[in-house]
Amino acid sequence: MIRSIRTDNAPAAVGSYDQANAANHMIYTSGQIPIDPVTGELVPGGAVEQCHQVLKNLKAIIKAGGSRMEDVVKTTVYVTDLEEYVTINEVYSQYFRGDHLPARSFVQVAALPKGALVEIDAVASI
């Protein structure tokens, strides 16, 4: 059985997809860009501010699905500028630290929706 996960604490989906789905004791999130769930707008600032918002959105979705950031097993980070690797990694490591760190892919893409600088998706166990 597949269960849709939706929360008002993260941006609503703008297309034909859910914020996340749960199946077989796992949560699979859609990619999150730095949209403020209150305003529906891209957060102002650069890679630091955007990465914080993306991870706050992911955290809200994962919590709504009945899990925690400590239970994330895999993330994929998409950036429009690989030169931001160190900056984004510094923010990322504030949300993922300790004995367990998720596996991760970090890739540069040509562009992201709404001109975002970073997008992250995650897989977490429940």
Please, how many helices?
2
Strand order of the largest sheet: 1-2-3-6-4-5
* The CATH class: Alpha Beta
Helical content (DSSP H or I, runs of 4+): 10-25%
Number of strands: 6
**Which architecture would the CATH scheme give at its second level?**
2-Layer Sandwich
Shape: globular
How would you sum up the major sheet? 6 strands, mixed
Q: For this structure, what is the CATH homologous superfamily?
A: RutC-like
Cα-to-Cα separation, first versus last residue? 14 Å
Q: What is the overall pLDDT average?
A: 96
The proportion of residues in beta strands is 25-35%
Give the low-confidence spans: none
What class would the helix/strand composition place it in?
alpha+beta
Structural Rg: 14 Å
How many domains? 1
Q: Which fold name fills CATH's third level, the topology?
A: 60s Ribosomal Protein L30, Chain: A
SSE order: EEEHEHEE
Give a description of the structure.
The protein has helices at 47-64, 85-95, and strands at residues 3-5, 20-23, 26-29, 72-79, 103-108, 118-125. It is an alpha+beta fold. A six-stranded mixed sheet has the order 1-2-3-6-4-5, with helices on one face. A hairpin with a 2-residue loop joins β2 (20-23) and β3. α1 (47-64) runs parallel beside α2. It is globular. The two termini are 14 Å apart. The mean pLDDT is 96.
Concise account of the structure shown:
With 126 residues, the protein is an alpha+beta fold.
